[in-house]
Amino acid sequence: MIILRDLSLRRADRLLFEEANASLLPGQKIALTGANGCGKSSLFAMLLGELQADRGEIEGLQGQRIAHMAQDVAASEEVAGDFVLGGDAAVAGLLKELQSAEARGDYTAAAALHSQLEACDGYAAERRALQLMLGLGFEDKDARRSVGEFSGGWRVRLALARALMMPSDLLLLDEPTNHLDLDTTLWLQNFLKAYRGTLLLISHDRDFIDASCSAVLHIEQQRLNSYKGGYSDFERQRALRLAEQRASAEKHARRRAEIEDFVRRFRAKATKAKQAQSRLKELARMGEMALAHEDSPFEFRFPEPPRGRDPLIELRGAQVGYDKTPLITGADFSLRNGDRMALLGRNGSGKTTFLRTLCGELPLLAGERHSSEGCRIAYFDQQQVDTLDLDSSALLHLQRITPDAREQTLRDFLGGFDFRGKRADAELRPFSGGEKARLALAILAWQQPNVLVLDEPTNHLDLEMRRALEIALLEFSGAVIVVSHDRHLLRSTADSLYRIAEGHLGLFDGDLDAYEALILRGSDEPKDSGPQRAEGADKQKTTVDRRDQRRAAAETRAQRRPLEQAIKKLEKRMASLENKLSEIETALADPSIYEQEHKAKLTELLREQGSYRSELEAVEGEWLTKQESLEAMTPGG
């Protein structure tokens, strides 16, 4: 067990921790959360021994093997496969010694080294290193390329692979998904589930936290507060704690009313899409969790966009690619006012190329592209940050776009992105990557687009800013198409999913959970069965005894019966729980419940709501499992 006892730390004139306490249990997987600048990276530095606390101590680190992910990897001539293998320093050292001994003909030393390698499973190390690289999106040939040949984002992936390669008791990962796509994020999520040591993870991807972590360590007011469960559980628990601490929750009630009003307006339009139902649930949950985020510095809206003529953008028979190399062929696609789409696909499938072609930045290799009159596109990718004038301020960037706008109007708008006061006037050069990404989003939003094309918009954004972006997108009345590894953002903002696979673009017939299951199975959608079976096999099939068929059908019915009965019971319980939750929500919609005299009743309602919601989620999960089992027994199901 690692114990953080009475830690106090000050950096320059800023107090980060004051008598902070926490315990990290063996094998526990913990998400470290908190506002930007609260001390997350400093805590990592203290665990690594790179920074000493002003007061207090960290117990239990002695003898611990600690692996961490470097944030910067310098370009070098070292072969990528060797760089990753170097994460297991002991094995890498033995392999180098063996190579040297064999080169000088010292076979006695070589024999001893062979024995050591066998004892520590060193012969499998190169294969493990390659498997890590493949899992993180590299190809076989990449293992033989030098580190310097890769871009900065891919070198970060190499750093992650090297950290995962290292045998460790404590694994420290700082934003490991920042440069990953969704498919690779799912692979990493699966890998971390199997990791046996203690994991301390800094991440702004709430679904990744939910899937990977069983506890949250939240930095707030110079303290370390522990919560059980993933990020969603943390939100519920923190909301309840704050509700108990605050006599007045007017801001919570006001925000909840706004979201509930939006849900009512949106519901009539949402029934046509499978994803819309989960989106409505997410909106409702957002209202409940608003109190957990009431101290967020971010709150902005996309200005109401002008309505363009439908379809806003249309592709017909499009062949998409670059340098005469097609990545997608025969694509028919249209984007209309109010459409909300997510684009899925493996790394290298052509998602970014498709978005750039859709925006008109890349020419079609074949086919047609049409955009309607009044179509105003805002395209965001990470290169957007590179276009910023680092010697200018956030305010000046907006003034250059609209010279006639009132300065106070611009300042009010930038305030929603947490560029307030002197921060709006400061030059950008010393800004963090997250601050620059926020400004790039602000500039796009200010231009009043009616089409938002977003390629990994959440990279470098913290959880609070991601939530503000999510709310802004939910209220945006224009069209949205997004590529992101942030599943929470996709679930709450996309009504339809499109997928690029094997060079073709098509509507994905399922929700994000179905796509996640597909990727984690490591298989694609069912393909054509291919050539017909041999004639002899067909004849054999026709000779099956009819009595055996009837007996098999009777056995299937017998197996289905208890499942069908269980499903009916679960459906009744789901209906009962939904009715109870509806009654609680009606009570919570009454403004008087937030008055001081009803504090005890409010606390009880919130407790019951959390309990019923947890039970409903469990019952729904059980219902889904049994329903899938039932469908598996159905011919063709």
Automatic annotation (TrEMBL):
Family annotation (SUPFAM superfamilies): P-loop containing nucleoside triphosphate hydrolases
UniProt similarity note: Belongs to the ABC transporter superfamily. ABCF family. YheS subfamily.
Single annotated GO MF: DNA binding
Keyword tags: ATP-binding, Nucleotide-binding, Repeat
Keyword Cell membrane among UniProt keywords: no
SMART domains in the cross-refs: AAA
UniProt cross-references to Gene3D superfamilies, sorted A to Z: P-loop containing nucleotide triphosphate hydrolases, Valyl-tRNA synthetase, C-terminal domain
Database matches in PANTHER family: ATP-BINDING CASSETTE SUB-FAMILY F MEMBER 1, ATP-BINDING TRANSPORT PROTEIN-RELATED
Glycosyltransferase recorded as keyword: no
Name of this chain's protein: Probable ATP-binding protein YheS
Pfam family, one: ABC_tran_CTD
Signal peptide: none
ABC transporter domain segment(s): 2-246, 313-527
Region (Disordered): 522-561
